[in-house]
């Protein structure tokens, strides 16, 4: 038991060697006491001893309606394991509505990036409620969910940033106290209606999200509550339930921090189908039909479902490429086809090199990639040489594989948009464009000729309600071409979306710019550009649109703030290439300025630029 | 020292960040650094998980020394 704890303690030594596996093992161990203890010790351990990645700092407020003693420590473990460096505030129990509504509350002063509201039934059902008067129970539930919604609205009015609430289980002691089956069923219905109202909050209040905690608990083996601790210390959840919640909260925080995985790279033999294609032949691989083929088919269907929500799929397999192509074209039982994949590497080369090339081809960060393989050897190889990639080892019974991909992959996002459904074809078109470009370079050595031939059209337009979710997503997903880093969406000012099309297809909204005026200065609050459309001069077309707007409104210069994140150097290079000059650095923000003259920032001559007044 | 006592001392030491060797049956919990009712509940969780037992909370809260806890756990684990 103390093995893991010993390893945590060792990291407190001044000359401690790093332990990169520790967080993952802590996040998985069933020993609650060890995790709780470790959570308390981890806070003092520097990141470089625990991970090779640069963690995202995140301020997390826990606003509980009851005492949740162990939760902060569990959060420390699950969040650190998820790539987040948390700063956690837990407000006093029983103050939930006050904390949300008072503009000077502890919560308000903490200014969290994420707020986790912990609810229990007492918020909706008073202790002296008459359980035989179901009409009164229902009325109280409706009224009190209304009060909670108002408190959330009040909080939203003076602070942005996502809030997570959750559905609430009805304690068994309440349910069983109603002895008539018919009345008990009605109580169940009233309670589900209450939870439905909670599940409906995201539709009503901007950036409020609901975890279906009641559904999560269905798979939880123990009681949600230890009645002794509840009566003595108002601990509404058992320690095991608090840990379960910490895991769900970490998934939410990952999505908030823009750390969601964007790409799933799959092995083929014994991963997407049973058997070895080269040995068994296309007609003998196991997929679909009876067990175990149906389990492999479920893995494929899960991958397809991810793809429809914007996750890119890739293949990394040691196989005969011709044979693989034939299987995807001809095998009647597959749920995935060749055009479901944004990139493939089917050959006999080592998988780490293949994966590196595949990631480079897609132009995404390795930390946004999940690699899944049944072979321990391949998993170890990739995990060692590409530590930023999330590795899911699909060993054991294939019927567990689909669930493991979803549990360990970190694909959760806050919302999906229309662009997500089309993302694979967008990347495939991009790959085709690259091949086309390579052809140009080979023939004429001129990338410019290629750009002219692309027929690039850029449209800049104000954001409306339909565009805003996509723009928020762009702000969240963009790591490289961003002035401020992901998840930093300026709150005020004007927001413009940028649509890009070329002769290979419509890229959709791939950039966004936030503007505000200040005296004679036009402030470029942020500019984000999807890595999908790098190297085509799009950013210069956007700047041309911005300078046009600026001149028309009488501004004399443009100012931009750049915050280095270690990943966003492309954005800095753009500013300098465009003629911005750095002036000063304040609190990690470098101020750049560009005077506005009639000749500032012309649009590249291979781009047709349209600026629209209306969405 | 019995095996139960040794394991208990480790749990208490882990919970309070004190060396296990410094604990005796006569040690008062209230003398341990940072001891509070929450620490008591955390220790209760550890003890119950480790020994696979469930204690009567009233009896547990009445315990004042390490030795008394060892006796209570030994009795409960032997039932």
TrEMBL record, chain A:
InterPro entries the UniProt entry points to: FkbH_domain, HAD-like_sf, HAD_sf, HAD_SF_ppase_IIIC, SGNH_hydro_sf
Highest taxon of the lineage: Bacteria
SUPFAM superfamilies named among the record's database cross-references: HAD-like
Protein name in the entry: D-glyceryl-ACP synthase
Lineage, top ranks: Bacteria, Bacillati, Actinomycetota, Actinomycetes, Micromonosporales
UniProtKB/TrEMBL annotation, chain B:
Record-linked PROSITE patterns: CARRIER (PS50075)
Carrier domain location: 2-77
InterPro entries in the record: ACP-like_sf (IPR036736), PP-bd_ACP (IPR009081)
Gene source species: Actinoplanes italicus
Superkingdom assignment: Bacteria
Name assigned to this protein: Acyl carrier protein
Gene3D superfamilies named among the record's database cross-references: ACP-like
UniProt signal peptide: none
